Amino acid sequence: MIKPKKSLGQNFLIDENILEKIVSIINIKNKTILEIGPGTGNLTSYILKSGPKKLFVVEKDKKLAIFLKKKFEDKIIIINDDILKIDEKNLYEEKLIVFGNLPYNISTEILAKWILNLNDKNFWFDFLILMFQKEVADRIISKFNSSKYGRLSILANWKLNIDKICDVKSSSFFPKPKVDSSLLLFKPKKIFYKFKDPKSLEKITRIFFNQRRKKLKKPFNILFKDNIHILKNLQIDLNLRPHNLEKEIYYELTREYEKL
Description:
With about 260 residues, the protein is an alpha/beta fold. It has helices at about 15-25, 40-50, 60-70, 105-115, 135-140, 150-160, 200-210, 215-225, 230-235, 245-260; strands at about 10-15, 30-35, 55-60, 75-80, 95-100, 125-135, 160-170, 175, 180-190.
């Protein structure tokens, strides 16, 4: 009997209806798949039934990696490592379809890492199908003027189109978490803002949302020294608050910042 580790944020998905729904979102027959955090292999089994060309799984827990090896033998390729330390671009020469019931404690870190490391010319994946804590998913898909809109919304929507598939009750997991989850589908955008350094966007949003209830004047002056030209060009009202600006304004601000 495999016991879930709280330290690794392990909550195994056990609801067969949800497992079936996840693998039916897109056609994965003859596709190369990457699964993050397979746990005891519940979703892995459903993925294999759909006839993928190749299936990589990344599992940090050594005991689970051994368990998965015994359960699936040579049907899967197991990478016993931390997903935050892996360079996904070098896993396989073909684009991947990624499934992940992401650990709650590092889900935003994983997503941010993938977005910031994306090559502008050639994405390493075709789709991401990811499970998040519902509160985190709400932040990812929130629009401006919402209290949940912030850095994660702006970063996630920069290079990706995002669709919410469904909410998933806590009873669908073992052990049962205290909160519900949401399943999101991410697809690469063909057209998006290009920056010299993706970390510029990270810096802009960090400074603006550091005090999200304060007006825009202070963070703007920290970055742009009261530059009237930028204010007029982007039509920014410094009496507004960070969540009142559309994400495109933050992308434009990042461009202006990189010109300095």
